[in-house]
Amino acid sequence: MTTIEPGAVDPLAAERAARMTWARLVEPREDKGRPLIAEHGHLGALARVRHDPTLLGRAAVARLTAFDLSRELRAADLVEARVLIPGDPEWPLSLDDLALPPHCLWVRGPADLRAVTERSAAVVGARTASAYGRQLAAEISAGLAGRGFTIISGAAFGIDAAAHHGALAVDGLTVAALACGIDRAYPAAHTNLLKEILERGAVVTEMPPGSAPIRTRFLDRNRVIAALSLGTVVVEAGLRSGSLNTARHAAECGRYVGAVPGPVTSVTSAGTHELIRTREAELVTDAAEVAELLGVMGDDLAPARRGPDRPEDRLGRKERTLWEALPASRGAPLSRLVEATGMSASDVLQALGSLNLIGMAVRDRGGWRKPPEPKLEDTSP
Amino acid sequence: MTTIEPGAVDPLAAERAARMTWARLVEPREDKGRPLIAEHGHLGALARVRHDPTLLGRAAVARLTAFDLSRELRAADLVEARVLIPGDPEWPLSLDDLALPPHCLWVRGPADLRAVTERSAAVVGARTASAYGRQLAAEISAGLAGRGFTIISGAAFGIDAAAHHGALAVDGLTVAALACGIDRAYPAAHTNLLKEILERGAVVTEMPPGSAPIRTRFLDRNRVIAALSLGTVVVEAGLRSGSLNTARHAAECGRYVGAVPGPVTSVTSAGTHELIRTREAELVTDAAEVAELLGVMGDDLAPARRGPDRPEDRLGRKERTLWEALPASRGAPLSRLVEATGMSASDVLQALGSLNLIGMAVRDRGGWRKPPEPKLEDTSP
Questions:
Q1: Of B47, B73, B99, B225, which one has the greatest count of Cβ atoms within 10 A?
Q2: Which residues form a coiled coil (chains A, B) (predicted)?
Q3: Is the distance from CB of A203 to CB of A107 less than 8 angstroms?
Q4: Which residues contact B86 (CB under 8 A, 6 or more apart)?
Q5: Which of A243-247, A300-304, B357-361 has the least mean pLDDT?
Q6: Between A126, A307, A340, which is nearest B211 by CB?
Q7: Is A50 domain-assigned?
Q8: pLDDT at position A335, please?
Q9: Contacts of B15 (CB under 8 A, 6+ apart)
Q10: Are residues A267 and A136 in the same domain?
Q11: Residues of A numbered 347-366 whose beta carbons fall under 8 angstroms of chain B's beta carbons: which are they?
Q12: Alpha-carbon gap, residue B254 to B230, rounded angstroms
């Protein structure tokens, strides 16, 4: 494991400590420090900041001075979290697709994060989800988990929770990415859900222990969800839902984005409709379609959609034409059927005979009609 | 008017008679005769068929022999229908975009067909529509009619009827295109609807009087609906609904196609979802979006969608960060807020002062928290 255990030799110890320091010094997508890091690496950049405190500003320097590696390690140990950095076998290479990848990741749970995210889908959406949205999130997640996809989401109320539960319901793997420290259960009402996820899956965050889930960190977290998975499905989203932000991050790092439509009268579908309208997302309606979107070519093709078969589909061309011209009430005489169909009288008679044999034409008041059949069905061609 | 009235001189009389004959000889999209017509025109092609009866086959020749112009004119007169052909001022030029345009059109109603279809939308869909679909069809049609669009549909049960009714409800113009002869009211249950449409609008068909609405003629009719309008909106459609066929015809003659999504659990939305999925249609959710799709550039732009404003949107960056880190229950001490936000103690204190002033932070048990506010809202960023 990549946990830094007391006594174990960590070949990346210095780099790991430097990255953990950076996670304390700056917010994940803060510009400050990034040019330094890009030029000198995390360790080198840190040395430069120590040398010239003006580089990052007063507050960051105060945090740099206060940084205490052993305290950090204890905080992670306390919740049995490991700290991953690039170079660790468990570091998900997918994160390198981000413009600003996490400095490091705190991870809990038995799953190997790189392995389980190799075939994974993010299922996200509104917190104020409707029953429709929660049902679909659970169904799509269960369907994907059943096809071997790990479900990644944000453990929030509504769609996120339904997505995790859907995967858990079929004993699938699921990963929760948090916007707060690994030592926090957020939202508190989902403490048990997070425990369930931890039984076989993983909980991850790039925020150091003790960090609160504030707005910008949700946006930071969303890019981690997007990058960790092969694609993101937005199930329900209002026009300001954070899941739209996740979808855009997914598109930015070249991942597939799907969105589930709903009634246009539902405000919680306005965001998914907008994603589809603007071509930022593909419209998806079930797990099979999502699997096709995400899966390996040819491996996960959704079955083609077709309507139900109807008796008249099996008729020959002339029989079909006549059958359609037959009135549903009051029999029509032969002359009327000839005019109505444009067929010759002998063709009409022949077709009437065939239809009569299979019970699809009956005599009525000296003419012919369809058999009575009290059903309502969309029979438009 | 282009009606052939007794005694009036019709400069296109011979061509009109020839085209009315062709409408009796062949079905609208039948290949037979089309090469002859393309080469020699309707009149010339007819002369050739008279000369060589083998060109069209036995049944067509029988119909040619039986053709009786004065009887045809009487049948049209009986229902006060006029017969339009290319060259008439009322002939809609849009029909010329069809690969196989109608030979002629029977038209009833006071509207000038060319004029009223110049700014028009087809609103079509499933016969077995849901209440959701019918409501949307009526709303979208009313909204478009209110923006000066003529609503074109097929007078069928379900979406078609709701579309016509929506236009009528706002005193808008609407046109019904039939799959049967102009002397027939199909479906019979819509006799009154057709009468209402006829009061200000028009009813049209390319099928000669007496023709029954058989399957292939619905498909013929669908291409007329598609070509007559600037674009087609499919409101609800099963996977085999004829409205999908209308949508495809619309795309073929370069018209815009929109489709309204619905719950993925509804079979009557499976067809519209498929149209959107396959990029055959744009997703549309209301009349404004359809108007934008169909309207003149810049003239009919739909308002941009945005979510509601929230109090925290108006906060400064530090106040916002702190506000988000404030617990919703139990006050948190200063040290906790410093850790949670990554802000300096003095910044936290200053932001607390500002939030407290506007009632967005309150003291609680020696710490600070958000004011109690029992509401459920999607506040994810």
A1: B225
A2: none
A3: yes
A4: B96, B101
A5: A300-304
A6: A340
A7: no
A8: 82
A9: B41, B42, B43, B85, B87
A10: yes
A11: 347
A12: 9
- How many residue pairs bridge chain A and chain B with CB atoms within 8 Å of each other? 179
CA angle, A327 then B176 then A370, to 5°: 10
Name the one residue in this structure whose structure tokens are 């045809």.
B72
- C-alpha B114/C-alpha B86 separation (Å) is 11
Residue B23 included in any domain: no
Which of the 8 DSSP states describes residue B170? T
Q: What contacts A110, CB < 8 A, 6 or more positions away?
A: A198, A199, A200, A201, A202
Tokens linked to A326: 């037959």
ipTM over 0.85: no
Which helix (H) or strand (E) segment holds residue A35: the answer is helix A34-51
Residue position matching structure tokens 């058989």: B214
* CATH classification at residue A353: 1.10.10.10
For residue B128, the SS3 value is: coil
Instruction: Please name the residues in contact with B345: beta carbons below 8 A apart, sequence gap of 6 or more.
Output: B334, B338
Q: Of B227, B262, B294, which residue is a domain's last?
A: B294
Q: Cα A243 to the chain's mean position, in Å?
A: 9
- Decide if B234 contacts B273 (C-beta within 8 A): no
Of B214, B264, B289, the CB nearest to A136: B264
Q: Indicate the residue among A294, A319, A351 that finishes a domain.
A: A294
Query: For chain B, what percent of residues have pLDDT higher than 70?
Result: 92
The reply to whether B42 falls in a domain is: no
Phi, psi of B61 (to 5 degrees): -65, -40
Chain B touched by A243 (CB under 8 Å): yes
Q: If we measure between CA atoms, which residue out of B25, B4, B1, B24 comes closest to residue B13?
A: B4
What is the DSSP pairing of strand B82-84 with strand B105-108? antiparallel
Kindly compute the dihedral angle of the four CA atoms of residues A319, A322, A327, A328, in this order, to the nearest 10 degrees: 20
Domain span holding position A166 = 109-294
Burial class (CB in 10 A: 0-12, 13-18, 19+), A52: exposed
Structure-token pair, residue B89: 């001022």
Exposure class string for B319-330: b at 16+ Cβ within 10 A, else e: bbbbbbbbbeee
**Which of A159, A301, A368, A378 best tests the B interface by mutation, with the highest count of B CBs <10 A?**
A378
Q: Name the one residue in this structure whose structure tokens are 């404004």.
A: B288
Between CA A194 and CA A81 the distance in angstroms is 14
pLDDT at A2 over 50: no
Q: Are residues B109 and B226 in the same domain?
A: yes
Residue in A83, A30, A26 with CA at minimum distance from that of residue A60: A26
Strands B202-205 and B174-177: parallel
Which residue among B128, B211, B321 places its CB closest to the CB of A378? B128
* Contact at CB, B289 and A274, closer than 8 angstroms: no
Scanning A103-132 for CB atoms below 8 A from B yields: 126-128, 132
